[in-house]
Amino acid sequence: MFSFLTKSKYSFEGIKPYEKVVILLYRHWFIIFIGILGYIFLALIPPLVYIFFSVQIGNIGLTQIFDFLTAIYYLFWWLGLFYTITMYLLDTWVVTDHRVLDNEQHGFFNRTLSEMHLSRIQDMSVGVRGVIPTFLNYGNLEIQTAGTEPKFIFKQIPDPASVKNLINETFNRYVEAHKDNVEVHELGRQP
User: Fold this and answer.
1) CB of 133 within 8 A of CB of 139?
2) How do residues 144-182 score in pLDDT, each as one tens digit?
3) pTM of the full structure
4) What residues contact 64, with CB distance under 8 A and at least 6 apart?
5) Tell me: the pLDDT tens digits for 58-112?
6) Pairing of strands 152-158, 92-96
7) How far is it, in rounded angstroms, from Cα 178 to Cα 171?
8) Cβ neighbours of residue 152 under 8 Å, at least 6 residues apart?
9) What is the DSSP string of 96-134?
């Protein structure tokens, strides 16, 4: 019942006892910054409308209607802001010393959790497109598997080239410790 007290940002449902988290990734901070900045500007619209048109609103007698519409506007504004922050925090990518996990949130009640074993990694590529992503060093990392499965795409992550190198190092350590792709932990041996 109180297991949430022992959880950390480096634990997740389904982690094996011998598995260690190498890296936990969110989108770059600039992505949430731009989203919140947009909502700050949207929050200024009703006060600006009132400042510039208060005399006309008062003369026509629409003050109460304007107040009601402003309340409705801020209700949807708050919902949008909460949605933006929630999607940022719940879109995560986890790399362990055995697997790569892609947890993609598509809405409040819709998420996709994909998992790929490190041994299935075939190819990785990094894409940084645009002036701001180049300057702030964020972009996409695509991981191609050995099968017909779709690519794993880490979207808008910070320093994708370093993450690619870290996954390569983790992959190499995994291959050295698990000859013929046999999970030594489940056989009772240590690597």
Assistant:
1) yes
2) 887 677 788 999 999 999 999 999 999 888 888 877 666
3) 0.78
4) none
5) 788 888 998 999 999 999 999 999 999 999 988 889 999 888 888 888 888 888 8
6) unpaired
7) 10
8) 100, 102, 114, 116, 142, 143, 145
9) ESSEEEEEEEEETTEEEEEEEEGGGEEEEEEE--SHHHH
Please state, in angstroms and rounded to a whole number, the distance separating the CA atoms of residues 91 and 32. 12
C-alpha pair distances (Å), 181 with each of 68, 184, 191: 64, 9, 12
Q: Give the residue among 35, 25, 27 at the shortest CA–CA distance from 138.
A: 27
Query: What does the alpha-carbon distance between residue 66 and residue 50 come to, in Å, rounded to a whole number?
Result: 9
Give the integer Cα–Cα distance in Å for 24 and 15: 13
**HSE-up (13 A, CA, CB side) for residue 84:** 18
Residue with the two structure tokens 């892609």 = 102
Please state whether 113 falls in left (phi above 0), alpha (psi between -120 and 50) or beta.
beta
Tally of CB atoms within 10 A around 19? 14
For 57, half-sphere exposure in the C-beta direction (CA atoms, 13 angstrom radius) is: 18
- The residue whose two tokens read 């510039």 is 52
Q: CA nearest 94: which of 34, 146, 170, 183?
A: 170
Q: How many Cα neighbours within 13 Å face the side chain of 15?
A: 17
**List of residues 6+ apart from 125 with CB closer than 8 A:** 141, 142, 144
